[in-house]
Amino acid sequence: MEKFICIPDSFQGTASSLEVCRIMSRKISEVYPDSEVIAIPAADGGEGSVSVFLKVFGGEWVQTEVKDPHFHDVQASYGLVDDGRVAVIEMASCAGIPLAGKTKNPELTTTYGVGQLILNAAQRGAKIIIVGLGDSCTNDGGCGMASALGVQFLDREQKAFIPNGGTLMDIHYIDKTGLAKELSGVEIITMCDIDSPLYGLRGAAHVCASHKGADTEQVAHLDQGLIHLCTRIKEDINLDVANIPGAGAAGGMGAGMAAFLGSKLKMGIEVVLDMVHFNDIARDAKLIMTGEGQLDGESLCGKVVDGVAKRAKALGIPSVAVVGGVGEGMDGIYEKGLTGVFPINRRPQDFSESRFYTEENIAFAVENILRLVRAYGN
């Protein structure tokens, strides 16, 4: 019996990873009726990651009241899997761009609610807390999150305050001694979808802050704030977070997770692959199918297709990516291990039109890949 592995990312805005899995599985069963199909919806830490974990592992949603990016009360949810032993949190649930509203400004927004979710999960008995970074409206280096967990940030007058992106420069000293005792013995894993440094031209502010509402002057100010935060972390916590891969993820939240919580930063897809024991289940597969909405240079920085390609190469199994489109800088994906890339659009169309045909376009591409594999893949 032939075995196929389906592990796509979402086609953002048009099809979730669950839906893409369903399409791929259906076409595989049609072309290879007696095959074994293992479908694994993938996520890299951004919005939708909790749904993926609950779908793959089972579990329950937990809802609680926390602070939103503007420090207003909001209902946010996270997932508990493995009988409550593992909690999965998306920072986007309480610090995501949609919650910023019409007044997007990363100098003012906070990650405080993320810390409240982490604390709630620990109080419920979770021993492993996975925090997905991505889709945030913040640039506070995780200081809001840390404040909710008992870390104190003191200004020059020794007054404690909750820093946001615009006030990072006011931090004079960081005191971790009040960190919540509930976190003792809890392993915290951070899922990142990018491996950028904390500051500089490739850092959090310069790469992403403009999408969160910052103008050119604000971007420069935010970057200076992250530089200052890095200095304070190095002096007060004895950790250099400047060039930790992923430190710049989600407005510097990666750096904050490492510095304040001692968290390991991992590419989101690597967390998923490890949890499903991917190397074991894929070892004798005929083909691994992955995919995403746009394959480009950023995809090579630890996103789903990149992670799957590397695992497939190590296992010596051919892998293909079904993608909505191809951008600049994706050629390196072949060196990572991907066998081929197959854009789905069947005719020249702008995305505003083609987005309505995503399902049938994916199905068409997958069927033709499988026909080729069946003819020549023995």
TrEMBL record:
Signal peptide: none annotated. It is an enzyme of class 2 (transferase). It holds the Pfam family Gly_kinase. Its EC number is 2.7.1.31. It comes from the Bacteria. NCBIfam families: glycerate kinase. Belongs to the glycerate kinase type-1 family. One of its GO terms (biological process) is organic acid phosphorylation. This is Glycerate kinase. Keywords: Kinase, Transferase. One of its GO terms (molecular function) is glycerate kinase activity. InterPro entries: Glyc_kinase_flavodox-like_fold, Glycerate_kinase, Glycerate_kinase_RE-like, Glycerate_kinase_sf. PANTHER family: GLYCERATE KINASE.
